[in-house]
């Protein structure tokens, strides 16, 4: 299983690690197996490495002797130490699984444990093992830019940095800078989209995988006293009256690991307790990812929906609704990802022999976060195309969970269209070194997309255009430093316009094809597609970050109208991921990257309104205070809109223990009432809350 896991992650593992994993698994499965066989088989390679180091020492001048001269007693002591160490490792594994509420596989190896502990300590651990400090560590990687704890969405990562901008910055005194607070929302865009991935080292174990409780308290003063934060709400806070405004349903996103890798409820009792609280404050429902890597994880067309059936029944019994996301991407490499859920094992096996099934950058680096759109119609997945795989998965969901679809418990089905479930190219992967506000790179260099580009160039009669641009810089370039994205650059030349039109059309065609299949499967049910707000470099002519993400939206062209029209064609809702709280009272934080989050949001919303496409919204930065909630309300209710337009639903990210605590629940209930258009008494007073 250890070997399978590393095949899955596309990494190799040394023999000593494999032996260790095998040994630890045996001990974890049966504590009776702590005998000499285990110790001998598990320690052979490590003992060999020790002996080799001894040889190196004795082979140097003054060392003398040989490896054979080492006393027999010392060898025995080494074996005993190894045996003792492995027994301890097995007990640690068992204890963490049973009592620590860690989402560890039954066959978890030492790497899984180390990753879980590292994440709790505030580090970011990617699926391939790459590990770096989160924002709260305050360290900087080579090059001077702060390490980015990237997450699940494009809009999420885009927070501002200052020269070079840092996604999250913490001062030596422990205070969070405005830059850090404003950047929290970058979910997965490359991190963009909504998803938090860094975990402060000072938080308690039950908050592992969530952001610090203070993350959402933007706009409030924060004092740090003996590592405890005292939050003060401004006494002169003015609030709008939303009573009588249209009713906007409120959904709360469930934890990413609510269903474990065996497709079982990870914590049934804890979840039920939280669902009852949500019901008591009149939340309309919950939103949950249905992970491809869990349901069809082991063999093609063998689906396991057991955990989801149990979850949906719990929600149904409480008379709540469900929004589901068909998650055809991996979880674990973005901001906010506190669990690791890779693509199905059998897909990873195919990727080992045919890595072109993944998106690829100009340097040939593969990104296994999701499948390339180039194989949508290529029979490379054991006789099926990617579109057929997605269709079969959705059809299985529709058949196996039919009662929840037909009785209206499932109110919306969001179709995953790319990384983080968002419709975009994975143009800003932190695993490949991207840091905000880099322009990112085009992701069209797998052989299937290159074949499509060659065909498009040939049809134009310019076969020499069958290539990607060679003057776009690298992931962390700025527009003016490249020949392609600079003002008057090649992006607006004949070849540039051809390439960008093709690149963006591949994105639109992918959405068009999958949404047509989804509509066929789910018929009258509401379907949706998620779009991130890629706002950095919006105030430049080229809109470079949007171009690499697949949105052909330079200053002289509307890149979102065609996407909105495609959604309208299939009756799909546009689910927009945004981080409105991050810009609260900090408009200057985005000047360095010439970003304008609110402008991007309004362009996307207007494109949807113009095509009469319904809009749902999802926040990317957790918030527990009144100031942040008021900012969210303005982005959902549009109080100054003479047409009184509003959203079809709002999804709050995410259900964490902090949300369920005392005053946080009270504030969230006020927020829910206002979204529902109910009358809420406003109390202008100053209070303190310790988190």
Short description:
By secondary structure, the chain is α/β, with parallel strands linked by helices.
Mind explaining what this structure looks like?
With 691 residues, the protein is α/β, with parallel strands linked by helices. The protein has helices at 2-9, 15-29, 36-58, 72-99, 110-120, 154-157, 178-183, 268-280, 292-295, 306-317, 345-353, 386-400, 402-406, 447-459, 494-522, 544-549, 561-569, 597-610, 626-637, 662-675; strands at residues 123-125, 131-133, 221-225, 228-232, 250-253, 285-291, 321-327, 358-360, 366-371, 410-415, 527-531, 573-578, 615-619, 649-652, 688-690. Helix 3 crosses helix 4 (72-99), helix 12 runs parallel beside helix 15 (494-522) and helix 19 runs parallel beside helix 20 (662-675). It is globular. The two termini are 41 Å apart. Residues 1-67, 135-152, 159-232 and 684-691 have low confidence and may be disordered.
Which descriptors apply to this entry?
691 residues; alpha/beta; eight-stranded parallel beta barrel; three-stranded antiparallel beta sheet; 20 helices; globular; disordered N terminus; Glyco_hydro_14; Beta-amylase; Glyco_hydro_14_CS; carbohydrate metabolism
Counted by DSSP, the helix tally is 20
Arithmetic mean pLDDT? 78
pLDDT below 50 for ≥5 consecutive residues: which ranges? 1-67, 135-152, 159-232, 684-691
Quaternary structure state of the chains depicted: single chain
Major β-sheet annotation: 8 strands, parallel, barrel
Strand line-up across the major sheet: 5-6-7-10-11-12-13-14
Rg from C-alpha positions?
26 Å
Distance between the termini: 41 Å
Structural class: alpha/beta
Global geometry: globular
Number of strands: 15
Helix content: 25-40%
Strand content: 5-15%
């Amino acid at each position: 299983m250890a070997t399978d896991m590393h095949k899955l992650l596309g990494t190799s593992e040394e023999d000593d690690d494999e032996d260790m994993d095998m040994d630890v698994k045996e001990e974890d499965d049966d504590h009776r197996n702590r005998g000499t066989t285990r110790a001998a088989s598990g320690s052979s390679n490590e003992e060999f490495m020790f002996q080799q180091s001894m040889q190196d020492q004795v082979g140097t001048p003054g060392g003398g002797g040989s490896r054979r001269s080492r006393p027999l007693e010392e060898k025995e002591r080494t074996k005993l130490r190894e045996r003792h160490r492995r027994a301890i490792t097995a007990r640690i594994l068992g204890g963490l699984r049973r009592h620590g509420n860690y989402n560890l596989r039954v066959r978890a190896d030492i790497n899984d444990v180390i990753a879980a502990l590292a994440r709790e300590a505030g580090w970011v651990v990617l699926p391939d093992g790459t590990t770096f400090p989160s924002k709260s560590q305050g360290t900087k990687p080579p090059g001077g830019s702060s390490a980015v704890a990237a997450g699940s969405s494009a809009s999420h990562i885009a927070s501002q940095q200052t020269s070079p901008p840092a996604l999250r910055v913490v001062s030596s005194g422990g205070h969070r800078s405005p830059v850090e607070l404003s950047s929290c929302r970058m979910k997965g865009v490359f991190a963009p989209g909504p998803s938090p991935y860094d975990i402060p080292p000072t938080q308690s174990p039950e908050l592992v995988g969530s952001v610090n409780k203070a993350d959402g308290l933007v706009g409030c003063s924060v004092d740090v006293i003996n590592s405890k934060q005292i939050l003060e709400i401004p006494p002169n806070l003015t609030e709008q009256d939303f009573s009588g405004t249209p009713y906007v349903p409120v959904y709360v996103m469930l934890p990413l690991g609510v269903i474990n890798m065996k497709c079982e409820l990870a914590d049934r009792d804890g979840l039920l307790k939280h669902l009852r609280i949500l019901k008591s404050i009149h939340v309309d429902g919950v939103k949950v990812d249905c992970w491809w890597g869990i349901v069809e994880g082991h063999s093609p067309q063998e689906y396991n929906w057991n955990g989801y059936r149990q979850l949906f029944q719990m929600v149904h019994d409480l008379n709540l609704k469900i929004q589901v996301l068909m998650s055809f991407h991996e979880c674990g490499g973005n901001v906010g990802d506190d669990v690791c859920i890779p693509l199905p094992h059998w897909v990873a096996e195919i990727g080992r022999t045919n890595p072109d099934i993944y998106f690829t950058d100009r340097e040939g680096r593969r990104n296994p976060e999701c499948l390339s759109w180039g194989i949508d119609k290529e029979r490379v997945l054991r006789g099926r195309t990617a579109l057929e795989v997605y269709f079969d998965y959705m059809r299985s969901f529709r058949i196996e969970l039919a009662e929840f679809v037909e009785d209206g418990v499932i109110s919306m089905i969001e179709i995953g269209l790319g990384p983080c479930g968002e419709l975009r190219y994975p143009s800003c992967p932190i695993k490949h070194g991207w840091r905000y506000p880099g322009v990112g790179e085009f992701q069209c260099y797998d052989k299937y997309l290159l074949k499509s580009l060659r065909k498009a160039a040939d049809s134009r009669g310019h076969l020499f255009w069958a290539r990607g641009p060679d003057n776009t810089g690298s992931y962390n370039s700025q527009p003016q430093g490249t020949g392609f994205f600079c003002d008057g650059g090649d992006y607006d030349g004949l070849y540039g316009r051809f390439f960008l039109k093709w690149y963006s059309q591949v994105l639109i065609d992918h959405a068009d094809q999958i949404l047509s299949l989804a509509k066929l499967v789910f018929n009258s049910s509401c379907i949706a597609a998620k779009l991130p707000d890629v706002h950095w470099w919006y105030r430049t002519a080229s809109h470079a970050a949007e171009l690499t993400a697949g949105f052909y939206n330079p200053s002289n062209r509307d890149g979102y109208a065609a996407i909105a029209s495609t959604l309208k064609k299939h009756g799909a809702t546009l689910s927009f991921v945004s981080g409105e709280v991050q810009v609260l009272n900090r408009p200057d934080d985005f000047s360095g990257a010439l970003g304008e989050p609110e402008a991007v949001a309004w362009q996307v919303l207007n494109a949807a309104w113009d095509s009469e496409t319904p809009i749902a919204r999802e926040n990317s930065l957790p918030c527990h205070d009144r100031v942040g909630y008021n900012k969210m309300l303005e982005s959902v209710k549009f109080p100054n809109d003479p047409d009184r337009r509003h959203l079809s639903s709002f999804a709050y990210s995410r259900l964490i223990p902090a949300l369920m605590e005392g005053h946080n629940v009270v504030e969230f209930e006020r927020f829910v009432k206002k979204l529902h258009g109910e009358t809420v008494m406003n109390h202008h007073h100053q209070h303190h809350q310790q988190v």
